[in-house]
Amino acid sequence: MTRVYLDHNASAPLKPVVKAAMIQAMDLAGNPSSVHGFGRTVRRAVEEARAQVAALAGVRPAQVFFTGSGTEANNLALRGFPGRAVLTSAIEHDSVLEAVPGAARVPVDRDGVADLAALDRLLADADGPMLVSLMLANNETGVIQPLAEAARTAHARGALLHCDAVQAAGRLPLDLAALGADLLTLSAHKIGGPAGVGALILADGLEPEALIRGGGQEKRRRAGTENVVGIAGFGAAARLAREELPDSARLTALRDALEASALAAVPAARVMGAGAARVGNTSNLLLPGVAGETQVMALDLAGVAVSAGSACSSGKVKPSHVLAAMGEDAGDAACAIRISLGWDSDEAAVERFAAAYAAMAARLARAPAA
Amino acid sequence: MTSYANSLGIAKRPQDTRVVVAMSGGVDSSVTAAVLREEGYDVVGITLQLYDHGIALQKPGACCAGQDIYDARQVADRIGIPHYVLDYEGKFSQDVIDDFADTYLRGETPIPCVRCNQRVKFRDLLNTARDLGADALATGHYVRRVQGAAGAELHRAIDPGRDQSYFLFATTREQLEFLRFPLGGLTKPETRALAERHGLEVAAKPDSQDICFVPNGSYADVVAKLRPGSVEPGDIVHVDGRVLGRHRGVVHYTVGQRKGLGIGGIRGEEEPLFVVRLEPGQRRVVVGPRRDLARRVVTIREVNWLGPALAPGEGLEVEVKLRSAQPPAAAVWRLGSDGTAQAELHEPQYGVAPGQACVVYQGDRVLGGGWIAGTGA
């Protein structure tokens, strides 16, 4: 049985060009901090990658700081300014929500779009300087957030804006200035690069306190010898993400076809966030009465890989806080799956999903009630 | 139609037969999965996340999953089967842990493992297995499912030292049709040998001893945590009415208990004293000599009956087991109305505790059972 991978938002398969760039980087000897020629050669590879990631985010290379993951970049952004209290949206990734456990949360509407009037009220009621964190595209629904307006609102109240753009990179054009964000998080493995490397993009003049100390790397923002191979892969993946952005139209058409056939075969299903603008690769399908984890298992046994909520290291699936924030009751919020397409997805994959989804729904409809 | 049936009694080739195995991470369920996989079945392993391990051990920040879930994953990977972890914390808390606390507070002695089999594994997990298109749900319990003329029957395991039939009395006929117990014909050493032959790292893992969500064995502490303020001290009273001392809460006691009463060496007391009954309303622990424990009549509630049809009041000669560690005793069994029954013992039994199970046997076959509601002399 060939397996179909429709879980790009969890991690995208490594692109062949990226792999080649990483293999090349593996042959480089030396530490980028070293004074000698070996060190300079390795440093050149890191700086080339920095320029490529900068181009993806529409910034200068000096604004790019490499980290060990998107999660680390989010932590650095939100914990690096202890003088500022943090406000997040209710639908942020756990790496934002758990980085600042006490932070107030901006609600979202039924379609999963942040309520900017509520943001303004929360900022108006705040005492000291604030930092707002709002993602560009939601990882579970793909719903695009109104970043530019949020930035205007935040800046009018003297707040900074951090944007987790991990799920938007390669799917939407990115430009720090156009988004109006002051800090931006990226991750390599969501765009066909390797896991284990991310970046925090900083507007000029921002100097977060380092979380990891013990060396002068990344201008003292992030100590530790650079993950040169991973960073080289990130650079190549960032270049491809920019060049291949037109591919998102193809993926949107595939995603729309997937949703159309799923809804035709299973009328009880609902597309979450369908009323909002979404990135083209992501679909969130809710099937009332059928636990998302059961759906994921049944589809996996049929050779189709999708996900439900977010899984902890044990594999246990938590009910979705995103769908709960969108007003789904606890029962329905546990009944959704996420299908996420990417560079290697094709029509055959979509057809496999549609067939497996229809078969699963038919079997579950027949199964005796508990 | 073919008359061929595979080793699980299903008329399909093994590779076309999907079997969900409930994998706890222990040696028994691991071997169950490995054996079925070797026979060529389409095996799917599922492990239930039943409670937050970090909270149970009172180690904040510890992973919600214990070592057992990781062990189950390793085994599944080793034998090459898909494996999933299902979050049953909510169901387990409501259907097993709450019942455990409430039963203790009624002055009874619960068996949460039976509730877990009855309300979690054989109800919700079994439904999930059906949802996944499985033909059967297999577990590593030491009990046998025998195909009888009138359907599947539940029988004791071959190895009397391992037999778990007492804990499975609540299995319904419908559940039994779907369940399989491949280890029922094996001894524990045979199971361990199979684990070694399959190269399973859990081969030497010790058997779990305690109730899983009470890792350090203090049931009363768990009850006190679940129902704050409910564990209150009171009097220890002799059946003749004398107050002999104080106790720390009725949840610390079970009927038939002799040790740990803290009233040893009472002057004028020639006979050893046992807990005869618990009166949670008055917060009293009533003690008396062994003869006061003698019971000839046991009333049962929530009866699950797998035996022959009985007319109301019709007596059936059976053996009943009133504690997991006690040998069965001969009795006459009569079904009542509303899921009740009565067992009339030929010889008096001692230490019959409400809340424990009364399981009915004829020879090796389990005819059913229920919860002990009350007793009479």
From TrEMBL, chain A:
Catalyses: (sulfur carrier)-H + L-cysteine = (sulfur carrier)-SH + L-alanine
Q: Which domain of life is it from?
A: Bacteria
Which residue spans adopt a coiled-coil conformation according to this UniProt entry? none
Q: Which UniProt keywords apply?
A: Iron, Iron-sulfur, Metal-binding, Pyridoxal phosphate, Transferase
Annotated Aminotransferase class V domain ranges read 4-353
Please give one Gene Ontology molecular function term for this protein: cysteine desulfurase activity
Cofactor(s) it depends on: pyridoxal 5'-phosphate
Checking Pfam families in the record gives: Aminotran_5
Q: Which residues form the signal peptide?
A: none
Ligase is among the record's keywords: no
The UniProt entry's sequence similarity note says: Belongs to the class-V pyridoxal-phosphate-dependent aminotransferase family. NifS/IscS subfamily.
Q: What does this protein do?
A: Catalyzes the removal of elemental sulfur atoms from cysteine to produce alanine. Seems to participate in the biosynthesis of the nitrogenase metalloclusters by providing the inorganic sulfur required for the Fe-S core formation.
Cite the PANTHER family for this sequence. Answer: CYSTEINE DESULFURASE (PTHR11601:SF34), CYSTEINE DESULFURYLASE FAMILY MEMBER (PTHR11601)
Q: What is this protein called?
A: Cysteine desulfurase
Q: Which organism is it from?
A: Azospirillum brasilense
Automatic annotation (TrEMBL), chain B:
Might you give the EC number(s) for this enzyme? 2.8.1.13
Q: Which residues carry the site feature described as Interaction with tRNA?
A: H141, Q356
Top-level class of the enzyme under EC nomenclature = transferase
- Domain of life of the native organism: Bacteria
Region Interaction with tRNA: start and end of each range? 162-164
Cell compartments where the protein resides: Cytoplasm
Per UniProt, residues of the tRNA-specific 2-thiouridylase MnmA-like C-terminal domain are 297-372
One BP term from GO: tRNA wobble position uridine thiolation
**Residues in tRNA-specific 2-thiouridylase MnmA-like central domain copies:** 231-288
Recorded hits in InterPro entries, A to Z, give:
MnmA-like, MnmA-like_C, MnmA-like_central, MnmA-like_central_sf, Rossmann-like_a/b/a_fold
A GO MF annotation of the entry reads:
ATP binding
Q: Any idea which positions bind ATP?
A: A22, M23, S24, G25, G26, V27, D28, S29, L48, G140
Tell me the keywords, alphabetical order: ATP-binding, Cytoplasm, Disulfide bond, Methyltransferase, Nucleotide-binding, RNA-binding, Transferase, tRNA processing, tRNA-binding
Q: Which reaction does it catalyse?
A: S-sulfanyl-L-cysteinyl-[protein] + uridine(34) in tRNA + AH2 + ATP = 2-thiouridine(34) in tRNA + L-cysteinyl-[protein] + A + AMP + diphosphate + H(+)
The active site annotation covers C116, C212
The UniProt record lists the keyword Metal-binding: no
Offer a single GO CC term for the protein. Answer: cytoplasm
Quote any Pfam family the record assigns.
tRNA_Me_trans
Transmembrane domains' residue ranges: none
Biological role: Catalyzes the 2-thiolation of uridine at the wobble position (U34) of tRNA, leading to the formation of s(2)U34.
Query: Record's family?
Result: Belongs to the MnmA/TRMU family.
Please give the name of this protein. Answer: tRNA-specific 2-thiouridylase MnmA
Organism equals Azospirillum brasilense
Output the lineage of the source organism.
Answer: Bacteria, Pseudomonadati, Pseudomonadota, Alphaproteobacteria, Rhodospirillales
